[in-house]
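Private note to self, pasted from the team thread so I don't lose it. C-alpha cells:
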C-alpha cells in the first residue's frame, strides 16, 4: 500500500508545471548526451558488414534502454556510488575512468585504421562480431548512464519523470542514430572528426573520474563549431565539383 501511494504521488507530481519543465530539461539533457551515444555507435558498428549494422544498432540500443531504466529504478542507490572506495575515488569515478580510457583506446585505434587505410580491406564477418559490437554499445552506454542518472536525480526526485526523459531520448536515438551514423561513415573527413570528438569525450570522462568537474559547454561548443566548418567545406567541394562538371556555353 505504501509503494502504491508513493507511485500515485509521483504521477500527481508529474502533472505540475514545474515537473513538466523539469521533464523538458531532462529530455534536452539526454538528447545532448545522446550525441555521444551516436558517435560511439558509429564507431562500434563501423567495422561490421553494412547489412549487420542496423541490427547491431537496434539490439544494442534496446538492451541499453533496458539497462538505463534499471539504473533509473535504483537511482537513489546510485547516488551512493559517489562515496570514496579507493584512493579517494568512488565507484562512479572508477567507472568513468575505465570507460574514458577504453573510449580513447577504441577511437585512437580506429583513427589509425582510417589514416593508414587499414579499413579498406574486408569488414569483420565473424559470427560473434555483431554480439561483440552490441556488448560494447551496452557497456559504453552504462558509462554514460551512471553520470546522467546521478545528474538527473540531482534535478528531480521523481523517478517517473526521469524514466520518461530516458524513453523519449532513446526514441530520438532510434530515429537518428542510423542516418547520422551512415552519413558519418560515408565521409572519411567526418569520420575522422567524429573519432577526434570521441577522443575528447574519453579525456573528459577521465577528468570527471579523477574527479575534476568539466563544463560540458566547453566541450560541445568547439565540437559543434568544428562540425559546422567541416560541413561548409563539404558544401563548397560539392558546389565546386558541380560547377566544374557543368557544360560550358
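Design output:
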Amino acid at each position: 500500500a505504501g509503494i502504491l501511494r508513493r507511485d500515485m504521488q509521483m504521477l500527481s507530481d508529474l502533472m505540475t508545471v514545474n515537473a513538466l519543465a523539469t521533464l523538458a530539461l531532462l529530455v534536452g539533457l539526454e538528447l545532448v548526451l545522446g550525441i555521444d551515444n551516436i558517435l560511439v555507435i558509429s564507431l562500434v558498428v563501423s567495422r561490421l558488414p553494412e547489412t549487420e549494422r542496423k541490427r547491431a544498432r537496434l539490439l544494442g540500443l534496446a538492451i541499453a534502454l533496458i539497462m538505463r531504466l534499471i539504473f533509473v529504478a535504483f537511482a537513489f542507490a546510485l547516488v551512493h556510488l559517489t562515496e570514496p572506495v579507493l584512493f579517494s575515488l568512488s565507484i562512479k569515478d572508477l567507472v568513468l575512468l575505465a570507460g574514458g580510457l577504453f573510449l580513447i583506446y577504441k577511437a585512437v585505434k580506429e583513427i589509425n585504421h582510417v589514416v593508414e587505410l587499414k579499413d579498406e580491406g574486408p569488414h569483420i564477418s565473424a559470427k560473434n562480431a555483431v554480439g561483440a559490437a552490441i556488448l560494447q554499445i551496452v557497456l559504453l552506454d552504462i558509462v554514460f548512464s551512471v553520470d546522467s542518472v546521478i545528474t538527473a536525480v540531482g534535478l528531480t526526485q521523481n523517478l517517473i519523470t526521469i524514466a520518461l526523459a530516458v524513453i523519449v531520448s532513446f526514441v530520438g536515438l532510434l530515429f537518428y542514430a542510423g542516418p547520422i551514423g551512415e552519413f558519418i561513415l560515408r565521409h572519411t573527413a567526418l569520420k575522422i572528426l567524429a573519432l577526434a570528438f570521441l577522443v575528447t569525450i574519453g579525456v573528459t570522462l577521465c577528468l570527471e573520474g579523477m574527479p575534476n568537474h568539466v563544463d560540458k559547454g566547453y566541450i560541445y561548443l568547439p565540437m559543434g563549431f568544428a562540425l559546422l566548418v567541416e560541413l561548409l567545406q563539404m558544401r563548397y567541394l560539392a558546389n565546386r565539383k558541380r560547377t566544374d562538371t557543368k557544360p560550358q556555353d
